[in-house]
Design a protein that fits this description.
It contains 16 helices and 14 strands. It has about 425 residues and is α/β, with parallel strands linked by helices. The strands form four sheets. An eight-stranded parallel β-barrel has the order 5-6-7-8-10-12-13-14, surrounded by four helices.
Length: about 425
């Protein structure tokens, strides 16, 4: 049965195309810096938003028209949803998908029943992967929706909750491994606190680290060699998320001996909630050697929550790709569209429009970033700006051959600094505009 009978496989038609269901910039076989777009982006469809999103919000129930979905949380409905998902992903031409355990399979009355349901759906997912060639970019566990996680999961004050979460993640890693998943994400939906009056912060952080070490140990035990990813997420829903931003996550990984085992999965809307730009979070992660994958979306800067909109801003995608190209790509990570169509965009066709536009936006951003990098205009400016460290006293500072006493003597002899040079921000912004 075809669930999208009126939608052909989305094809590349070039920049002059007026077809809303065609790519104008994303040509999977086109090369950018020696790599095909298919291999550079490794686009993934987010199962939870695209196939489970209902369009509900705090002021009203869902609005989405999904003719294939009977509204139940049954295994049969979940199996049908797998068919829908793979038809959609095949027609879109994305090579990957991502899921939470409870997105793909319904939670049962007991852990054993939940695991049984998960096994049934995993079998179907594997069969569809084998038929289509579509792969699993990463899996993760939903440790936030069920009321048992009201105090968090790995950071819960209830040891039984910790144990339940561990069992759930164990199963999610095993299924991810069975499906050939290339990564596994730690997404701490409720790992944080509201008030320190009732919180032992050190104990909670210690527990979170123990939890992640247990996951690393279990992965080794079962032979899962995929990359573990830690996703920064500030403020929402708890007031103080432990995984606030890339810097906080890197500090956590260093401090608890997880540095060699875990990289970061960076999301645009989380970056802005933390008061950062996506480019900042990507650049910080990359210079630390920890940029593993990204959740590609955007938020409404006029609103103070995670709106998870599809990315269509060419400045945003250009900035992302400047960093991603600089580090040579994201493998084994990729670009996952953790984004949802708007509540008012309720027809199934809107799912295609959203993904096509976002994939085109990243393709266009990559082309612009590659052109900027080829000309070297930004790189040369930055090199010139820091040229005082390439010789003389600056070189000695970087080599660590001088201390405060030597620097004091240097300035006493010199008397005054060499003149500063303009940062020319406006000029550089104008330069970038020339490439758009």
């Amino acid at each position: 049965m075809a669930y999208f009978p009126d939608v052909p496989k989305i094809a590349y038609e070039g920049p002059q195309s007026k077809n809303p269901l065609a790519f104008r910039y994303y040509n999977p076989d086109e090369q950018i810096e020696g790599r095909s777009m298919r291999d550079l982006f490794r686009f993934a469809v987010a199962y939870w938003h695209t196939f489970r999103g209902t369009g509900s919000d705090p002021f009203g129930p869902g609005t989405m028209s999904r003719p294939w979905d009977d509204g139940s949380d049954s295994v049969d409905n979940a199996l049908k949803r797998v068919e829908v998902a793979f038809e959609f992903i095949e027609k879109l031409g994305a090579p990957f998908y991502c899921f939470h355990d409870r997105d793909v399979a319904p939670e049962g009355r007991t852990l054993a029943e939940s695991n049984k349901n998960f096994d049934v759906i995993a079998k179907s997912l594997k069969e569809h992967q084998q038929k289509s060639g579509i792969k699993l970019l990463w899996g993760t566990a939903n440790l936030f929706s069920n009321p048992r996680f009201m105090h968090g999961a790995a950071t819960s004050c209830n040891a039984d909750v910790f144990a339940y979460a561990a069992a759930q993640v164990k199963k999610a890693i095993e299924v991810t491994h069975e499906l050939g998943g290339e990564n596994y994400v730690f997404w701490g939906g409720r790992e944080g606190y509201q008030n320190l009056y009732n919180t032992d912060m050190k104990r909670e952080l210690d527990h979170l680290a123990k939890f992640m070490h247990m996951a690393v140990d279990h992965a080794k035990k079962i032979g899962f060699t995929g990359q573990f990813l830690f996703e920064p997420k500030p403020k929402e829903p708890t007031k103080h998320q432990y995984d606030f931003d890339a810097a906080a996550c890197c500090n956590f990984l260093r401090g608890y001996g997880l540095w060699d085992h875990v990289k970061l999965n960076i999301e645009t809307n989380h970056a802005t909630l933390a008061g950062h730009t996506m480019m900042h979070e990507l650049a910080y992660s990359s210079i630390q050697g920890k940029l593993g994958s990204i959740d590609a979306n955007t938020g409404d800067l006029l609103l103070g929550w995670d709106t998870d909109q599809f990315p269509t801003d060419i400045y945003l995608t250009t900035q992302c790709m400047l960093v991603i190209l600089e580090q040579g790509g994201l493998q084994p990570g990729g670009v996952n569209f953790d984004a949802k169509v708007r509540r008012e965009s309720f027809e199934p066709i809107d799912l295609f429009h959203a993904h096509v536009g976002a994939m085109d936006a990243f393709a266009r951003g990559a082309k612009i970033a590659a052109a900027i990098r080829k000309d070297g205009v930004l790189k040369k400016f930055v090199q010139d700006r820091y040229s005082s460290y390439d010789s003389g006293i600056g070189q000695k500072i970087e080599e660590g051959t001088v201390g405060f006493a030597e620097l004091e003597a240097y300035m006493l002899e010199k008397g005054e600094i060499s003149p500063n040079k303009s940062g020319r921000q406006e000029y550089l912004e104008n330069v970038v505009n020339l490439y758009l």
